């Protein structure tokens, strides 16, 4: 009898030992398959990755934003696509620089209008070069003459041309204000962890996340309150009046819009080792009815953003030969 019990006990102990070992490996993530039931969503992982991206000294970026729009009044579908790629470098605190190429296409019923351009920014100056323009009758020869010519948009000169006396927005201060606004707020609610994947040779964790309704409901009014700080003095009274009206009707309007647009879900790919945000994808189709006109609008949006080469050294050359924007106007 003792021998029989021993024979039954030994397999049971082996099974318990194997299950215990597997569970330990899963919990500690020593073995971390995509189906791991103990896989947890780290707190604020998406928010932290976004903040880390804003704090990077430099990085490469590329992406595409596209949309299709159709209204019941105009049955034709309008498509818009903006693709871009470039470099961002703020290693020199006194001269934030970026370089990017843009490709904008607008299409309707087989007609496509395309504009391509290059943009370089250095401190508060912008250099623009249009490399492709559509052949449209209202584009004058003078305007077409600026094609493939660098145009310099001087921030101070632009203020004179627009008769603006106020200081232009301070990017670093604005970014810091936004970071303070987002601090300790969980904007995204994790829906699913797809586990480990490989993106351009880098191991990443793939998450599906959606906006948290209550956080956005608090955050949006706070954002518009913050923006009051950056509104020119002579326009501030009107802004405050509009803001008051907006705030009074916000809760009801927000709930109505939220019902129309949800769910809003994003795919995020975040590096496993350094927690850099590598990729964002968003796709949404929705129908919205305007009560005032009873007009129905169908919208399809697609966003694909990619980031890489964080904190690497880039050379962004500032154009030496250019035309001042006031000469081209």
Condensed summary:
This protein has eight helices and twelve strands. The protein has 329 residues and is α+β, with helices and mostly antiparallel strands.
Task: Write up what this structure looks like.
It is a single chain. The chain has one domain. It is of the alpha+beta class. The model is unreliable at 1-32 and 34-38 (pLDDT under 50). Helix content is 33%, strand content 36%.
Percentage of β-strand residues: 35-45%
How many beta-strand segments? Answer: 12
Sheet with the most strands?
A: 12 strands, mixed
Number of helices: 8
How many domain regions? 1
Output the structural class.
Answer: alpha+beta
Shape: globular
If strands are numbered along the chain, what order do they take across the biggest sheet?
A: 7-8-9-10-11-1-2-3-4-5-6-12
Order of helices and strands: HHEEEEEHEHHEEHHEEEEH
Taking Cα atoms only, what radius of gyration do you get, to the nearest Å? 26 Å
Termini separation comes to 102 Å
Q: Which parts are unreliable, with pLDDT below 50 for 5 consecutive residues or more?
A: 1-32, 34-38
Mean pLDDT: 79
Helix content: 25-40%
């Amino acid at each position: 009898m003792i021998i029989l019990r021993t024979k039954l006990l030994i397999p049971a102990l082996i099974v318990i030992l194997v299950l215990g070992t597997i569970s330990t490996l899963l919990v500690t993530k020593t073995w971390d398959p995509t189906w791991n039931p103990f896989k947890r969503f780290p707190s604020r992982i998406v928010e932290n990755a976004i903040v880390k991206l804003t704090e990077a000294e430099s990085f490469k970026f590329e992406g595409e934003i596209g949309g299709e729009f159709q209204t019941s009044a105009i049955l034709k579908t309008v498509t818009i696509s903006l693709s871009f790629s470039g470099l961002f470098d703020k290693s020199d605190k006194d001269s934030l620089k970026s370089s990017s190429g843009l490709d904008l296409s607008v299409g309707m019923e087989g007609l496509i209008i395309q504009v391509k351009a290059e943009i370089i920014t250095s401190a508060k100056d912008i250099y623009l070069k249009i490399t492709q323009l559509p052949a449209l009758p209202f584009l004058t020869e003078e305007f077409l003459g600026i094609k493939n010519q660098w145009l310099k948009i001087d921030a101070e000169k632009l203020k004179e041309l627009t008769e603006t006396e106020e200081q232009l927005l301070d990017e670093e201060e604005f970014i810091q204000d936004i970071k303070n606004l987002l601090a300790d707020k969980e904007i995204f609610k994790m829906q699913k962890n797809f586990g480990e994947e490989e993106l351009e040779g880098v191991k990443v964790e793939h998450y599906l996340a959606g906006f948290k309704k209550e956080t956005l409901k608090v955050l949006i009014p706070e954002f518009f309150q913050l923006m009051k700080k950056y509104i020119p003095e002579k326009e501030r009274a009107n802004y405050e009046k509009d803001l008051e009206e907006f705030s009074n009707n916000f809760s009801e309007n927000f709930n109505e819009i939220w019902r129309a647009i949800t769910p809003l879900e994003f795919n995020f790919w975040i590096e496993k080792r350094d927690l850099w945000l590598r990729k964002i994808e968003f796709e949404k189709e929705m129908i919205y009815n305007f009560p005032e006109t009873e007009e129905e609008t169908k919208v399809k949006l697609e966003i694909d953003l990619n980031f890489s080469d964080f904190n690497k050294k880039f050379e962004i050359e500032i154009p030496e030969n250019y035309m001042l924007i006031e000469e081209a106007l």
